[in-house]
Amino acid sequence: MPKTIYTDRDIDDLARRGVKELAVSDDVYLTDLARERAERVGMVLRATPNTITKSENREANPSRDNNEQVVNQVKAAVIAKLGAEVDAAMIERIVRRVVEQL
Questions:
Q1: Disulfide: which of 30, 57, 68, 90 matches 34 by Cβ 3.0-4.6 Å?
Q2: Range of 81's domain?
Q3: pLDDT in tens for each of the 102 residues of the chain?
């Protein structure tokens, strides 16, 4: 099962749309800035139990080769979205840190 990653910008968008509560489980990752922003805008982060079984979880955890593929795809997507003037090495470090936590 894929994970959902929320950034501070995502929290801003949700708050603008009137979202007051966000369900957080093992399948949802919030960046540190997203957690701070949610707190600042008064959004409640509600912990929900994870619904996947251990066998499904094993299948969902990407292998080391797949991790590299995910890192490369996400890094390319971020650079495409933000433009070539971003620090590619910094983007890669951030993406790797997030992928390691998945």
A1: 30
A2: 62-102
A3: 678 899 999 999 999 999 999 988 888 899 999 999 999 999 999 888 764 444 455 455 556 668 888 888 888 888 788 877 888 888 888 888 888 887
CA 2 – CA 52 distance, rounded (Å): 11
Q: Which two tokens stand for residue 66?
A: 């797949």
Q: Is 41 left (phi over 0), alpha (psi -120 to 50) or beta?
A: alpha
**CA neighbours closer than 13 Å in the CB half-sphere of residue 29:** 12
**Residues 66, 45 within the same domain:** no
Structural domains in the chain (count): 2
Q: What are phi and psi of 10, to 5 degrees?
A: -60, -40
Residue 2: which H helix or E strand, with range?
none
Helix ranges restricted to H, the chain: 8-16, 32-41, 54-60, 64-82, 88-101
